[in-house]
Amino acid sequence: MKIATLQMVSGSQLQANLDQAQALLQQASQAGAELAVLPEYFCLMGQRETDKLALAEAHGSGPIQEFLAAAARQYGLWVVGGTLPLQSPAPDRVANACLVYGPSGQPVARYDKIHLFCYDNGRERYDEAAVLVAGNTPVAFELNDRSGQRWRVGLSVCYDLRFPELYRQLQADLLLVPAAFTHGTGQAHWELLLRARAIENLAYVAASAQGGQHDNGRQTWGQSMVIDPWGNVLAQRASGPGVVLADLDWARLQQVRQQLPALQHRRFHTPPCQP
User: Fold this and answer.
1) Mean pLDDT per 10-residue segment, the chain (275 residues)
2) Where is the CN hydrolase domain (predicted)?
3) Dihedral (C-alpha) 136, 156, 81, 57: value to the nearest 10 degrees?
4) Which domains does the chain have, with CATH numbers?
5) Which residues are catalytic?
6) What pLDDT sits at residue 268?
7) Whole-angstrom Cα distance, residue 189 to residue 140?
């Protein structure tokens, strides 16, 4: 199965961001991808953290969700909508939600980011809990590729990457990580953490990132990539908007899991999340 991780440099204008996403989804489709993953905050990197409140949509309706469904339908793709703000019971906070659409445009899965980023190095300070409501449920979905092979795909977002217990619960063949890592933390930990999640779960990992200088002054790390179950980086893009393509090999996945059956040797078990 060919997949595409889409790297963006989103700004503070919704329509410009959707236009950028549309162009990348079209490129992914033309290259033969079956699954395309947009980054976290693909629709908005606002001037202020509270800007996302004005874009919050009710789950199931709204222009951003309509865009994702239409793109999936138009290009015949599985589309993972990075994250977008969805309304929550708290009027001053939203859910940072990752939505999945099948090739016919139907909604397939929703995952609300569980772990909310908090960081302060004296120069940069972020506290997502000020405007976001944390999710509480791991989510995976089933995907039949064009050959008929069935993949279990686990969802996560950005800061979730630092919490390996989430990925154990997903018990997936492919782990998705849309993200907007800061430049400093990304430079130190991004690839290291992604490769660790692939190795310890004997799974493919596809990470789609924000990557560049944004009009709000923030610099994100980029380095969107796809990693195989042995921890090898199959494809990667350093910075700037673009499409990262890679072929996932089901036989290779099974070979690695058979040669090194570490998943069968676990002594502490958690039940898998339900699709």
Assistant:
1) 98 98 98 98 94 96 98 98 96 97 98 94 85 97 97 98 97 98 96 98 98 95 98 98 98 96 86 77
2) 1-250
3) 20
4) 2-265 (3.60.110.10)
5) 40, 113, 158
6) 84
7) 25
